[in-house]
Amino acid sequence: MTKHKKTRIKDKKLPAKALQREILKMFRANPKKQLNPKQVAKKLNVDNTRDSVLSALGKLVEEGHLSGLPDYKFKIKRSDIPPVASDGKSVYSGYVDMTRTGDAYVTIDGFDQDVHVSAKYMNTALHGDHVQLRVWTLRGRNRAEGEVVSVLERATEHFLGTLWLYPRYAIVVPDSIYVPVDILVPLEDTKGANEGDKVVVKVVKWTDTPQGIITTVLGAAGSHDIEMKAILINNGFNLDFPDDAMEESEKLPGGIPEEEIARRLDLREVTTFTIDPENAKDFDDALSIRYRENGHCEIGVHIADVSHYVRPGTPLDREAYKRSTSVYLVDRVLPMLPERLSNELCSLRPLEDKLTFSAIFEFDKDDKIVSHWFGRTIIHSKRRFSYDEVQQILDAGEGDFAAELKQLNKLAVKLRHQRFKKGSINFETEEVQFRLDESGAPVEVYVKERKESHMLIEDFMLLANREVATHIARKGIAQEQDIPFVYRVHDEPNPDKVAEFALFARELGFEMNISTPKDIGRSFNRLVEAAQNDPALKMLEPIAIRTMAKAIYSTDNIGHYGLGFDHYTHFTSPIRRFSDVLAHRILERNLGDETWRTKQDKLEEQCQHISRMERRAMDAERESVKFKQAEFMEKHIGDDFDGFITGITERGFFVELKETRCEGMVGFDTLNEPFDTGGSRLHMRGMRSGKVYKVGDLVRVRITATDLLRRRIDMALV
Predict the structure, then answer these.
(1) 637-717 maps to which CATH number?
(2) Is residue 477 within 8 Å of residue 470, measured between CB atoms?
(3) Under CATH, what is the fold of the domain 91-153?
(4) Which ranges of 589-718 does DSSP label H, i.e. alpha helix?
(5) Share of the chain residues as helix, strand and coil, in percent rounded to the nearest 5
């Protein structure tokens, strides 16, 4: 294998700016060196004259980067020396958050602020990459600057773009604004794609001009199917599973051996059923109910035993961890696991024996939990319900398993009341849904209605997640040594953000008590209640949610503020979340008297990766909703609708349509008079008419244009 030497600047005369950049890089790498112009030129191995080198050095001194010493000796400014952490390091690692300009900000643990990295110092790093970087602070600036030293892990190696053919090679121009470079592809690796086709390219060699191979040809640009695939790819998700993972999934045995059944608690005779959306294909949770001789009610929460099939270190395990989550777009699902697992082996389909991991709770006659049990089981679902079917039975009081469903709902309501009494916040964000035609085009947009049947399932899943986490935490406390575990944590809100929001709410007539985190939670719950009758306050709910911290996965259990739980994990959806697979593995090895501990550093690294992939999936899901909303409104250009003002900017104001929840913007340049916002985000005043509009006002707007690529809807005030 040929060993490549590090590229050097040789026999080359550099332009002034480039020369300054190379000199500064050299001094940063050797902060204690003192060199004169001749030594600088020799060390850089450039052809520039002594005077041009001296001029470049003088410019760097003038800008505060270098110190000039007697006899033209120079050294790096003290303020430019990379800061040294308490561990003695001067190189740090973090994750890249790129901007549209090609610059980036890198998040580093322990740093109060993100580190700014200029585009010229990115060293081929792209959005989401895990990188090592050198950090310094320029004189007179508070902002830390950095330079990528190396890329530790790529966020993705697959990119979507347009193919352009040339006589000797091909070029893929990536669609994403976060990939500011073209990708070179040998003609023999274009997979027969035509000029202008949308393709997926895998980068196999990272240089200033990355080189790649075409893995998928999507065809001519412009179809809505391609746009949905683009959303997935641009957010770092591969459309296809690698061959080794697919091969492993196909080889998994379909039957359940008798020796495996013998190792499990056999619950096949217990009344068990699933409740899921009408169009669901993967059923990863089921509920069972039976009564004991003492009159107590036993409820089982049964979860697909994915960890039985997906073993650590296998191709399936590596790919599931890499994806970390299924992604639910408007018109499709990109699963975390191959279909053989997600829709067949692990799916708790009715009238089939299935392997499960269960949490079983015993409720006494006063509906209090008196005991619980966790372990591996085998079940046989008697019925597959949709949410609507369960709701009809609850409303009518009759139908399949009506008595069982009524009892489950009674217990769920009590669990819910207990949760809110202990501080759980009742934020229920509205979920926009679409009815699509055969081609996938939206023909109706509506808000999903939250019913008792949805909350019934949710409350039992919350119970199982809470009790599994509590079991692990208590066992660690009893042994005076924590057991590293995957907790789902949610920090208390930032006091400054909450104070700002409270002022915002006061302007709309709602007073908040923000004295303590508990008071904040109670105020949020009062806001939800008040918003039922006040559209303006309804507009505050999504803003209130944005003041909250983001829930993440971590081994550091700080509790879950939003739910009001001291201990919480994700245990109930291992088909679509890798966090749950890890939780199953750790729980299973800590069910007996012995204690098993994994390496906390490694587990924390996995938690951080899963949290990042979760955020990407959420971004993709939101983007697909915005696309379909714009696609739906494309058919309504020229039509008028009622909507509520949701926000005001310097360019115009946002309006959310009353019926469909589609949001667009009315630009100030479309109005017949100038408006003054007075720096407020809450109201605006017409400078001639004196007409005042505020957030929450009902207005009539006309759809004037849509832009699918930018997911934008333009409106005009009627």
Answers:
(1) 2.40.50.140
(2) no
(3) OB fold (Dihydrolipoamide Acetyltransferase, E2P) (2.40.50)
(4) 600-633
(5) 35, 25, 40
Q: Tell me the three state secondary structure of residue 276.
A: strand
Q: What distance lies between CA 143 and its chain's CA centroid?
A: 27
> Do the beta carbons of residue 292 and residue 298 sit within 8 Å?
yes
Query: For residue 241, what are its two tokens?
Result: 């599973």
Domain 158-221 is of which CATH architecture? Answer: Beta Barrel (2.40)
- Arithmetic mean of pLDDT over the chain: 88
Contact 681, 697 (CB under 8 A): no
DSSP per position, 667-704: EGGGSSS-EE-TT-SSEEEETTT--EEETT-EEEEEEE
The token pair at 234 is: 């641009």
Helices then strands, counting H and E runs in the chain, come out as 18, 33
Q: State residue 617 phi and psi, 5-degree precision.
A: -60, -40
Could you please state the CATH topology (level 3) that the domain comprising 16-78 is classified under: Arc Repressor Mutant, subunit A (1.10.10)
At position 308, the amino acid (one-letter code) is: H
Quote the Cα angle for 182-184-189, to 5°. 135
Residue 590: CB partners within 8 Å, gap ≥ 6? 472, 475, 483, 596
Tell me phi and psi for residue 496, to 5 degrees: -65, -45
User: CB of 165 within 8 A of CB of 188?
Assistant: no
For strand 144-153 and strand 115-117, is the pairing parallel, antiparallel, or unpaired? parallel
The model's confidence at residue 74, banded by pLDDT at 50, 70 and 90, is low
- Coil, strand or helix at 261: helix
Contact 385, 273 (CB under 8 A): yes
Average pLDDT on 367-380 reads 97
**Residue 570: pLDDT band with limits 50, 70, 90:** very high
Q: Which uninterrupted H or E stretch holds 104?
A: strand 104-107
Please give the Cα distance from 113 to 103 (Å, whole number). 16
**How is the chain split into domains, by residue range?**
16-78, 91-153, 158-221, 454-616, 637-717
Do the Cβ atoms of 141 and 77 come closer than 8 Å?
A: no
- Which element (helix H / strand E) includes 525? helix 517-531
Convert the pLDDT of each residue in 37-60 to its tens digit.
777 877 787 777 777 787 788 777
| CA separation for the pair 181, 186 (Å, rounded) | 16
463 φ, ψ (degrees, to nearest 5): -60, -50
Q: Do domains 16-78 and 158-221 have the same CATH topology?
A: no
CA 198/CA 216 separation, integer angstroms? 9
Residue the block writes with tokens 């997906």: 310
pLDDT over threshold 60, residue 628:
yes
Reply yes or no on whether the pLDDT at 14 is more than 90: no
- 3-state SS, residue 114: coil
Structure tokens at 13: 């005369």
Q: Is the pLDDT of residue 265 over 70?
A: yes
Output phi, psi for 76, to 5 deg: -70, 140
pLDDT at 71 over 70: no
Q: What is the mean pLDDT of residues 440-466?
A: 93
- Give the Cβ contact number of residue 685 at 10 Å: 16
- The DSSP call for residue 385 is E
Task: Write down the residue that tokens 């585009």 correspond to.
Answer: 119
